[in-house]
């Protein structure tokens, strides 16, 4: 379960660099939260929907990290950047790695690819099952229902001497799901390419997220600010 990154994966890091995403700062915040909440002595961490490995680059300074993503194109880039790391291709709602971790993280709103409340519960349950007792699950949601802006228009421009990438989108709303229709224009010395991608992200209430954490046996709290204003859910797996 993920967005379609088959065409855009090659430009993903450049786009979010241009957008000002600060993986170092975000990873430090996540590290501080993990240390504040976890009750295990270990340092094994699993990054769910790790994408191209932006957070892994910094979390690996503190933890024995592994990554998981459904997109083979994103994982291929993460593997080139981190050839020594274990990376898994799997769906966040149903993966089974046969082991447990001291911390599991799911960042940058990736959990919103669970499009229904039932799928949200399934994803959180699957993640929680991979925690040691005393371990911590941290998930970053998409925006809350009251924050949805129909027909929102967005744009990011990568402006390099040998490469120009313009990504523009207009968002649509269908019930619980916000659809981002991305249009890419990529210009190189070889010419200009145009392609589109669609990403569907679900919006849930704070109580719905907390209920999913509690249903998975986690003691849950919510930080409304989080890493980029979308909030963070922190779940602790009880020691007994």
Could you describe the 3D structure shown?
The protein is α/β, with parallel strands linked by helices and 240 residues long. It is 26% helix and 35% strand. It is built from 6 helices and 11 strands. It has helices at 9-18, 23-37, 56-59, 72-81, 117-129, 206-215; strands at residues 44-48, 64-69, 86-89, 101-106, 131-139, 153-160, 163-174, 177-188, 191-202, 219-223, 232-236. The strands form 2 sheets. A 7-stranded mixed sheet has the order 3-2-1-4-5-11-10, with helices on both faces. The chain has a 4-stranded antiparallel sheet with strand order 6-7-8-9, with helices on one face. Helix 5 (117-129) packs across helix 6. The longest helix has 15 residues, at 23-37. The protein is globular. The two termini are 32 Å apart. The model has no long low-confidence stretch (mean pLDDT 97).
For the structure shown, list the relevant keywords.
single chain, 7-stranded mixed β-sheet, 6 helices, 240 residues, alpha/beta, 4-stranded antiparallel β-sheet
Give a quick summary of the entry:
Helix content is 26%, strand content 35%.
Q: Helical region count?
A: 6
Report the end-to-end length measured between terminal Cα atoms. Answer: 32 Å
Order of helices and strands: HHEHEHEEHEEEEEHEE
- What order do the strands of the largest sheet run in, or round the barrel if closed? 3-2-1-4-5-11-10
Mean pLDDT: 97
Strand content: 35-45%
How many strands appear in the DSSP assignment?
A: 11
* Structural class by secondary-structure content: alpha/beta
Q: Over the alpha carbons, how many angstroms does the gyration radius reach?
A: 18 Å
Ranges where pLDDT stays below 50 over 5 or more residues in a row are none
Shape: globular
Query: How would you name the oligomeric state of the polypeptide chains in this document?
Result: single chain
**Proportion of residues in helical segments:** 25-40%
- Largest β-sheet summary: 7 strands, mixed
